[in-house]
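Q: My collaborator sent me two sequences in one message, no labels, and asked for predicted structures for both. Can we handle them in order? The first one she listed is below.
A: Yes, handling them in the order given. First sequence, followed by its structure tokens:
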Amino acid sequence: MTKRMILPLLFGLIGCGILVSLGTWQVKRLAWKEATLSEIDARISAEPVALPVSFDREGDLYLPVEATGSFGADRIRVLVSQKKVGAGYRIISPFTTQGRTIMVDRGVIPIADDLPATPQGEVTVTGNLHWPNEVDSYTPEPDEARDIWFARDVDRMAAKLGTEPVLLILRAATPATLEITPLPVSRAGIPNDHLSYAITWFSLAGIWFGMTVFLLWRIRQRTV
């Protein structure tokens, strides 16, 4: 090995080492994310419990709840788009149970449909507590004139409807409102891209190694 090959070799080895370590880190993150998603699945599908007296947004996230009460006449429409279905409105309604009022995400109706009548009498709802993080700097303000919201902002919706800042995502209701299709909470919207990231880093490491070998070969050919 000539002195001219030492620096490219070191550069190549260090670069490969960094890229392989990044790929290995993503593999570890993949294992962590899959374990987390399994825990979320188990929590979502657990047996429902009564509505907690107080709420912890982290500790009660996805908590299955069953409650009996009545829906209020007011509601909020949130624009939503579903794959292979198209645009629709989520219907968020106040729900009073045992002297307390929370919000229930009852599901979605097609954008062209009229709003169904508010259910009369007692309704038993089953679903999961959720505090969606859907609002960012690009989210438009609610269109008050057309009664359309563009994200589920729990605190702001609660202020609008006069409820506690709690949202229950409906899984089932008895009796059901047939015009509204529930959109139960699931892990579908939680990204898990660590495998593709790992493949990318390992692929770059392979390319880096190949380029290093080629460069060393070129240097050796010039010195022969």
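Q: And the one she listed second?
A: Here it is, processed independently of the first:
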Amino acid sequence: MSGTTETSGTATIDSVPGSAEFAARTHGLRKTYGRTVAVSDVDLAVPHGVVLGMLGPNGSGKTTTIRMLLGLTLPTAGTAELLGHAVPEHVDRALPRVGALVEGPGFHPFLSGRENLLRSAATEPELAGSGLRGAVTAALERVGLAAAAGRKYRAYSLGMKQRLGLASALLVPRELVVLDEPTNGLDPAGTREIRQVIADLHAAGTTVVVSSHLLSEVEATCTHAAVLHKGSLVTQGELTTLLESGGPNLVVAASDDVAGLEALRERGIPARRENGALRVELTEVDSPEVIATLVHAGVGVREARRGRADLEDIFAQLTEETS
């Protein structure tokens, strides 16, 4: 895990009561730098076994929140708990069970990827001397770096450096894995591989927290989401519930979507063309009325199904409400 722990701050961190069911939790977490508020009163709850996407644009407070959770940065106010232990007082009890990649990996430029990883492995309490090389080899293979393990770190691309940081986080089995922008610098193939690593961790019961400013990444990899905006937590919960919160709608595959859109708008029914189909809002009408309107206008209906809101639309709506 990269980063250094701050040694100053005025926060008093106590154990968060009633959080045994959570892998990580904060209450009233706040961080200020002078007059700048980086994180404002965040109450975050990460249940065990989920993949939580911490979603927000750059500067929304994601990385600062993660650093406070891991004991790398002291909060100005509020409390935090990691795997049942108060942070930062007892962070040393939790960190051996946590793998983290925060703000990019930090390795020695003149050592090879394997040599850097061997140094990281030597600090793992669970790895005996004889098991170091096997763990390193397995971690390199897991992130697709086996062929480049002998190259100097300074010659690695940004994506390769991200992979090596992920390998360091996965040297031993973890109860919680925290990844800050893990696909940064990766090409599409590398992004797919990281998604598969996250899926494998989830299948094994590991809790994963993924920070990202990419809506597509959260939707593709996560079971839960927490949306941050300007340092505040806007919403959190199951991703499916969040997607269903955008309002009911109907997706219709019509014989003529242009004529169908015109017919619906003539009746005052909100609709738009999307990917060769019609997406119709059901705020003031029901599905049978939509179908009847299209059929009456001579537009054939090949398929109709309930749709869900697009995550991008929901994010825009949530952040606009808090601006």
